[in-house]
Fold:
Amino acid sequence: MTGRKLRPPAERDFRGAAHDQRVTARIGLWLGIAFGICFLTGLLSQLARAGSGWPTSPVDLYRVTQGAHVVAGVAAIPLLLAKLWSVYPKLFARPLVRSLPHAIERGSILVLSGAALFEVVTGLFNVAQNYVWGFGFPAAHHVAGWLAIGSVLVHVAVKLPVIRRGLTRGDGGERSAPPGGILTRRGFLRGTGLATGVAVVATAGAAVPLLRPVSPLSWRSDRGPQGVPVNRTARAAGVRAVDDSWRLTVVTPGGTRAFSLAELRALPQTSASLPIACVEGWNQSASWTGVPVADLLRLAGGAPGSPVRVRSLERRGAYRSSLLPGAHAADPATLLALRLGDEPLALDHGYPCRLIAPSRPGVTQTKWVTRLEVEPR
Ligand SMILES: Nc1nc2c(c(=O)[nH]1)N[C@H]1C(S)=C(S)[C@@H](COP(=O)(O)O)O[C@H]1N2
Ligand SMILES: [Mo]
Structure:
């Protein structure tokens, strides 16, 4: 027996380059940027879904902000794992709590790690499973976003001197990995950067059409009937093809009017190239043809400018109806689309007609529309 005593591991036992302050600070900076983008674009997504005040142009606005949200969220996953790996030896630092500021700092890290993990996991599930939690998801994702950003700010404020030192110290003439380690600091940083780059490129095709050829894991892009993805099929929504008794009913304060499909087709048609931009980050632009909602409101005796409730044939789904903001209802590019490309809409795209409005989240582009109701302002 040697004279060494068994003792629990201590922070100083972890000497790998990954645990160096300089590494932690750099990965923390990248992660902070990714989180910042997620947070801001997340707020924009809330605004866009709420509708009023969200602009109708550029038509790709939501497509860009939500694409950035999901791409930054994907980038955050390897960065978060690397950051946690970099700092986990601190779990073995003793005493657990030294002072009140120290307790606050440690508490904020607990909240930060929990909220950050919650955000990437719920975000990923949402992307992969298409709203398994229905309406619960946006609310929970939103609350955890505030928790994450709040604890990031506390964390950065408390750690500012350490972060500054970590970022400004040179690499100290590092030639080889520390004893017992296989990676240099630079090696760990490069590996993290590479993993982040691969994760982003492999998935970003969903949001960035140019990347599609090199993005094997991009979800739903280009696939689906008529070259446009379908999240919710007519079958899943319990919608069956309509017969001649189908009508579109338009209710305005100045009068109500019902249109048959033949009547809608006989009205002057407008074409617009507009994207479906899903909150999941995928988007697909297409050429839609149909009747401007503003024209329908006028024909029914109303004046465009007030919000319009858009109702579908769907009975139960969370997205069976949406509220079209007044500015969008008045925009001449906001269509009740009858055609996609040069064909009538496929049933899965909302036959006989769907809403398509510029710069709106996909969830509000209601399919299988049967009723438009002007709401009080
Ligand atoms: N009636 C109805 N319209 C709907 C949906 C729905 O579930 N029901 N899904 C929305 C969502 S989430 C998106 S992204 C767009 C495009 O969805 P799709 O891919 O299912 O056509 O349609 C929207 N319109
Ligand atoms: Mo969506």
In short: The chain has a mean pLDDT of 92. The pocket of MTE (ligand 1) is lined by residues 229-232, 237, 276, 278, 312, 314, 317, 319-320, 349, 362-363, 365-368 (CB under 6 Å). The chain has two domains: 11-170+182-214, 234-374.
